[in-house]
Each structure stands twice: as C-alpha cells, then as structure tokens.
Amino acid sequence: MPDITEFLNPRDLQQVANLQVLARLVVEGFTSGLHRSPHKGFSVEFKQHRQYVPGDDLRSLDWKVFGKTDRFYIREYEEETNLRATLLVDCSGSMNYGADKPGKDGVSKLHYASRAAACLAYLMLQQADSVGLVTFDQKIRRYIPPRSRASHLKILLDEMEQCTPGGESELGHVFHDLAPKLHRRGLVVVFSDCFCDVAELMRALAHFRHAKHEVIVFQIWDRDELDFPFKQWTRFDSMEVVGDHHMVDPAHLREAYLENLARFRGELEQGCHRHRIDLVPMTTDQPYAEALAQYLALRRKRT
Description:
Mean pLDDT: 85
Distance between the termini: 36 Å
CATH topology of the largest domain: Rossmann fold
Number of helices: 10
Helix content: 25-40%
Largest sheet: 6 strands, mixed
CATH architecture of the largest domain: 3-Layer(aba) Sandwich
Shape: elongated
Number of domains: 2
Strand content: 15-25%
Low-confidence stretches: none
CATH class of the largest domain: Alpha Beta
CATH superfamily of the largest domain: von Willebrand factor, type A domain
Number of strands: 11
Radius of gyration: 23 Å
Order of helices and strands: HHEEHEEHEEHHEHEHEEHEH
C-alpha cells in the first residue's frame, strides 16, 4: 500500500499545501468544518431572526430585541460543516494514451489523473473533509464512500495505484448509476478525458446538479490530442476496441480532426456553463500540482 510521499512528489504537495478547497454551494457534512451547511445551529456566523414559537429553545431568545420590541425572537445561525467530496477517476482505455510515448516517461492520462486526484484528496483530508473515490470505465469498478480519517488516504491511494486502463468509457451510464449512491449533497470531482457523447454526459452531470451537488470536471488531455502533430503515414489503434486500427495520412486527416475537436470542446464548454459546472482542462505536459494550484487559487478568489 503506497505512502503519500511515494505516490506524490513532496514538492508538488508543498505547492498546494496552503490552498483550501472551499465549496461555493451549500454542502452537508457530519462535523464542524470550513463549509456552509443548510442546517441551522450554533456557530459564530449569525443568519437571521425569526419569531418565537412554543417549543423553541429559550436559550436562543434575543433579549436585546425583546427589550426594544417587547416581542420574542429567536437568533438563528448558519453552522459550518465539513465538505463531502467524491472523486471520480476514469479508468477507460483512452486514458492509457501517453503510456508508451518515447521521451514521456510513461505519463499516461490515467497516471496524471490519479496523481491529481490523490493530491486533491490529501488536501481535503488535511482540512478534515470527507473524501470518497469511484473508479470506472464501462461501469463502476469500485466505490469507496467518503471518510474523513487520515488513514483513509491510504485506501484511496491503494485503489488508484492498482487501477489499470480497461474498456470503453460510458460516463453517462456510470454517472446515472452513481447519483443515487451519493445521499448527501457535496462536491463531485471528475477526472476524465470526457470522450463520450456530450449530450448524454450533460444529462448525467445534470443528474448530480439536480441533487444539489457541486460538480468540477478536470478534463485530461495529452498534448497530441490538442495539436495533432503527426506528419507521416501513421497507424492509429483504438485504445478501447481490440483490433480496431487504421493506417492514415495525417495531412488529409488533420483539418477534419481539428474541426471535430473544436466542435466537441465547444459543446462540452457550453453544456458545463449551462449547468454551472466548472470545466478545467489539464494537459499531461503541465505538472499536475501547478495546474491544480492555479485552479484552486482562482476558485478561492470566487468563494
């Protein structure tokens, strides 16, 4: 079972150590923490007054207001709660791209995604938040419910270390199956290349939003997929369908590929914007800690 310093570079951890993952929407949790809760209780943040009704706790009466109005009012507070986050890591075949590229040290999209997810899990557990994990391809491989214990990190790291690229991705189907398992509203963080039908994916992500979850999608790219740098006749093998391959001249394919890529990205961006979902592109040639720190710093300013 890997230790955090074996799975992640200590310098990367240091880069994001002082950033907090703050939910921008109301979330639920079990313990006091850093995030707003829809439940009202006693805390330092005053919420509102409401008129006293028989059965209310007399300790909540605001006697200063009574002295001014001769009426009984209850002081309500907005309690703080820990964040419940579930990390969704795509382990489909397309996430293995980059593993065999020369000069890239075997950094596949899955390797990159799992390190970024581990870094985020470490940060949240450090601030006493609860973190869970889902690994999937065509179906859910493993669902680890959120926990806030420090020892829980080892369980998450072990699952991500053992996860190998598998079959075709079915994000829409998987997310629809997963949504009923997430009983409490919280943060859903997706690490995937999102290579699927965009309309079906957006319907699935809307399922999470309908359940009041906040959703972040870290879309993982290899630079080849964005730039299409191929010059000579090249054999392209499907990473999800065995035996499916094509020998093509990239010069004739490049323009059509880039047009389809722009259309795909545009549809995904529009869909995420419509549902108030953060879509964060990440490329494997950028250090994951650097990309994550940039996003978290921006997120903190918006909170």
